[in-house]
Amino acid sequence: METQTIKNTDKATKTTEYISGSEAIVRCLIEEGVKILYGYPGGAIMPVYDELYKYQDKIHHVLTRHEQGATHSAQGYARISGEVGVAMATSGPGATNLITGIADAQIDSTPMVCITGQVFSHLLGSDAFQETDIVGISTPVTKWNCQVTKAADIPEAIAKAFYIARSGRPGPVLIDITKDAQIEKFDFSYEKCTKVRSYVPIPKTVEGSLEAAAKLINEAKKPLVVWGQGVILGKAEEAFKAVIEKAGIPAAWTILGASAIPTKHPLNVGMVGMHGNYAPNVLTNECDVLIAIGMRFDDRVTGKLDEYATQAKVIHFEIDPAEVNKNVKADVAVLGDAKATLEAVLPLINSNSHSEWHQKFKDLYAIEYDKVIKDDLHPTKEGLTMGEVLKEINIQSKGNAAIVSDVGQHQMIACRYAEFNKTKSNITSGGLGTMGFGLPAAIGAKMAAPEREVVSISGDGGYQMTIQELGTIFQQKAAVKVVVLNNDFLGMVRQWQQLFFEKRYASTEMINPNFVAIAEGYYIKARKVTKREDLAEAVKEMMESKEAYFLEVCVEKEGNVFPMIPTGASVSDVRLE
Amino acid sequence: MSTEKQLFTISVYTENNIGLLNRISAIFQRRHINIESLNISPSEIEGVAKFTIVVNMIEDNVKKIIGQIEKQVEVIKAYYHDLDEIIYQISGLFKIKSELLFEERQIQNIIKESNARIVTVNKEFFVLEKSGKKEEIIELYNELSPFGIMQYTRSGLIAISKDEMKISTLLETYNN
Description:
CATH superfamily of the largest domain in chain B: ACT domain
Number of helices of chain A: 23
Largest sheet of chain A: 6 strands, parallel
Number of domains of chain A: 3
Structural class of chain A: alpha/beta
CATH class of the largest domain in chain B: Alpha Beta
Radius of gyration of chain A: 25 Å
Strand content of chain B: 35-45%
Radius of gyration of chain B: 20 Å
Structural class of chain B: alpha+beta
Largest sheet of chain B: 5 strands, antiparallel
Order of helices and strands of chain B: EHEEHEEHHEEHEEH
Helix content of chain B: 25-40%
CATH topology of the largest domain in chain B: Alpha-Beta Plaits
CATH class of the largest domain in chain A: Alpha Beta
Helix content of chain A: 25-40%
Distance between the termini of chain A: 69 Å
Oligomer: heterodimer
Number of strands of chain B: 9
Number of helices of chain B: 6
């Protein structure tokens, strides 16, 4: 490695080193504070892997068993740490295998930087071996992407990538780097990016909007807050809690907003949306002021849009101006960072309690408890319910675990019943609904927060989409607790077939393998529970294990998730059975 | 706000970077919106490109599209206008057999009356250029058509807004 000092006329004297593009990539990652990255080597990224070998004391590369696993692990890492997750892959199939995770990160606003190798630049566009136009392919699902064909452009591209991924509304970024750029040597120096001219990460709060919002809140008789992940991403949990506590407003969460305040907080009235709680869904169509905070009115939350909260004045606290008025028209839009705007609105709002209005939530909760929750958590019939498994996990974890769920019925049950004391504890695939997300995301979550208990909850369907990541768990000694709620069905699809397709269970029944044997094949302690009397002890054993642990729970085959808002129905038409 | 579809021009000021056309066109494609015409050129500011996009949409949806366009990292600012709010031109090129220029007197009259310009003449063909509103170019096409047009093409709409688009000021605020 040669070192020299150059005099840059614009800037102060800067030290550069004459190194390869691939070494520069690794050095840039270290400069950005990356300690762990997830990936899979291959021809077009090999020079970078060679450098990673050299720098393994500074940066730990996790070899996942599939590139999709690398992105989901990076997502899990990002979601629990609040830092940028990093995934790496080779060109062609390696790069395309990242796409599902990138799309998932895009819709769930997860900060992620993906680095892909690319064929030599003189081969670009020639259909060379393992060449794909990954920049073109990833364009619709990235916040930003670029291709680098010269080593000298690497530092700026990576600096920009991290800045864009983590700032404003976070998202995934992809940098595709040709092999010649990796090999070429150049004078390396690194400067973090703090600004991109055309990019405004946090929009200015429109003058008067805070006052207008406060006025509506102060005059409201029946206000309802619906908060989303923006509260967590904006590190606004405390400000958020202060606002709802001062104004005494019942607050409901979207699936990605879960855990921003503790589940048992007296103002927490549950989840909104398709499988959300009865009270907040029904009362959405009764509130007089709806205060949306860091959420985007997804169709799974709103149901039929033209019957969604039409009686209410809507206040939308939002960082992304494109989300305002996209689905639901806002009477007052408070643009900006959630923490800053909530802190600014706090002194403008009056103390209130809204006790009569709260009583309505309690009354409807009692109905939901009677018709749904009681049987889910304290079943008396024979088959094990998914809800009672969650209840046992809550008991054992005391609400301190991070729950990483996959996609399907178990996910809805996990989100409905998992108890959280700490923020950033509910990690799931919200917007994209990616089966296969859970297991690899749990690996990333555990590596980001090794001191925390991380429980992955999957169904038998999604689990088998990324089951190979048990190999990563084993190799990394990641002490993830893996729970599979097995009903031998693609349960959510089956539920829809039962309710809307006259029980024609087309291709949803699964003949499953011996999951315990598979886990044991990966040298992971494993246990299967089929009877209620064994459940509590098995969950206890799992939670007390210092190592990774696999627990299969055979649950009732045709259990359903209620409440449910059928697609296209209004939120107030939520079904309890 | 009108709920009728109408023609809007969308002006997008961007950094001049590879791949941005893909990003912007994908926003329309994803929503099944046909782009009536598209022009990309340098703008009055060095290094800043200007997209002029014509779409037939209802205004409410144009506003949402603007939001999605502005969300792109390398987009500086996007505006939309209806056709009354801009000065615009379209250019049409017509390739016609040279013999017609001398044998068909009517052609000379058409050229004169339409204010079209002869770009080039050689032994085989001559090329006419006409700038103006789309209707004027179509009218010229209809008039020339009976004589035989060897090639015809029309540019995308290019536009200057009547109102000021304060990109330079905006860039100054970004730079500071």
